[in-house]
Amino acid sequence: MGVRPTVGITVLEGVLFALQPASLAAALAGVLLGLVFGAIPGLTATLGVALLVPVTFIMEPALGMIMLSGVYAGAIYAGTITGILLRIPGTPASIPSTWEGYALREKGDAELALGTAAVSSGIGGLLSGIVLFTATPPLARFALQFGPAEYAAICVFGLVVVGTMFDRSLLRAGVATFVGLSMGVVGLDPISGYSRFGFGQPDLAGGLSLVPVLIGVFCMPEAFRLARRAVEEHRAGRPMRPPMNRGRLPTFKLFRQNGWNLGRSSAIGIAMGTLPAVGPETTPFVSYSASRRFAKHPEQYGHGSLEGLMATESSNSANVGGSLIPLLALGIPGSAVAAVFVGALTLHGLRPGPLLFTSEPGIMYALFTGFLVVNLFMLLLGVFFVRQFAVVLRIPPHVLAVGVALFSSIGAYAIHTSLFDVWIMLGAALLAAALSSLRIPVAPLVLALILGPLLEDNLRRSLQLSQGDWMIFLQRPISLAFLIFTVVAFTLSRRTRRLPGEVAGAESGTGRHGSRNEPPEQPSR
């Protein structure tokens, strides 16, 4: 019989429980399931954790929490696999990783990109696990200092940084941001409850569903591109595939040289994860921007930069551990997935908060240790199965096109089991095509859609608290600091001239060339 953490069990016994065969099996199963949910567009980490919560009811509480943490971490990482191989980010958090990963794939370095992403994710997850284990209470207390003004300032910072990072034309970036913010106000007013831009459609009462929009913007255009490539291959009579530089895998020297980049990006992921309501979708944009700002060769970003890929992947996985900190220490979920954990803990009679550390220390430290094991498994699986993942490149494009379109439609429908979401997906695909023809970047639109509701809610709450006084944003030190960061980032971006043709993935959040939303087709080989 193994050690079972219950009330009063010591921290050491909780650690030993997480290292038992049953716990290791739960961690491995969670990671594998997370890889499935993260790699298929539409099947998000939130959906995966939510579907498996009932399964944990027949398990020990600690085992169930370890498995769910594996699903969470695995899904966040797996979204990058399809992003690198097919230019289809499996999760919103994988969008920045797709820019660099797919560029590397086009150069024939798919295995290098996959290996780098796996190790970077593992490093970020392990660092966040160490912080989760050692510093949960103090970091959670710091997160309590954030109020509506601070969240509003963070949203403005994110929108400005992303908008100025992608396009020299402020007009194009501004148009994309405006469109995204406009899409975010559809639905019920969060304060008054009045319907806005609903056009009499009950399905729009809750606003535009984020996942169908993202699928329409990123997945359906890729299905069309693959179909076009299949037609061209058929006409040419031979396949047009990118080269494959077999044997090129990341080295220890590469990660040693990027130690500061990995540490900084992981710290950003952990810090933003501790902030309630700031989900993992925002973190990679901020870490990517910071990495590019301090890079020795920023002109390489958007053209297959390993530094950029490391920054986004390490911050993504670090955000997972960070989001669990306020949940466990304060009972405040740091992301949508973490909110599902509340239901899982409640299902087992556990109430998240400070008392949980005194009443159930064994379960807590079993979870912390299990989270470290989860990230170690994720790293090992990612490295050892790099070449198996790359087999996707050998699938004929017409098969991939049908599969992408099918899974995209299923994913959009599965969110609310509604055909209306499928129409939203198709509408978003048409919008992406229209913006592509105007050379308007899609990435600012996506982030504006994600941050828009959060910005509106906290901006209005701040003004209500201050009775309409805008000085509240300057009177609070943290919000003032973020506003100063915003001005500095904007000023520096205007002074930094890009090289000719450099877009850094701007045109669709994935492409590398200034004239189109997608990279040009590879020549026949």
Instruction: Give the overall average pLDDT.
Output: 77
* Rg, nearest Å: 22 Å
**Distance between the ends:** 61 Å
Helix content: 55-70%
- The structural domain count equals 1
How do the SSEs run, as a string of H and E? HHHHHHHHEEHHHHHHHHHHHHHH
Please count the helical segments: 22
Unreliably modeled segments: 1-9, 497-525
Domain DUF112: 24-447
Biased composition (Basic and acidic residues): 515-525
Keywords: Membrane, Transmembrane, Transmembrane helix
Organism: Egibacter rhizosphaerae
Word description of this protein:
The chain is an all-alpha fold. The protein has one domain. It is built from 22 helices and 2 strands. The chain has helices spanning 11-18, 21-39, 45-52, 61-86, 95-106, 110-143, 148-166, 170-184, 210-236, 252-257, 259-273, 283-294, 306-330, 336-347, 355-359, 361-384, 386-389, 397-416, 419-437, 443-465, 472-475, 477-495, and strands at 187-188, 195-196. The longest helix is centred in the N-terminal third of the chain and has 34 residues, at 110-143. The chain starts with 10 loop residues before the first helix and ends in a 30-residue tail after the last helix.
Defining key terms:
single chain, 525 residues, mainly alpha, two-stranded antiparallel ribbon, 22 helices, 68% helix, globular, disordered C terminus, DUF112_TM, transmembrane
Question: In short, what is this structure?
Answer:
The protein is mainly α and 525 residues long. 68% of the residues lie in helices and 1% in strands.
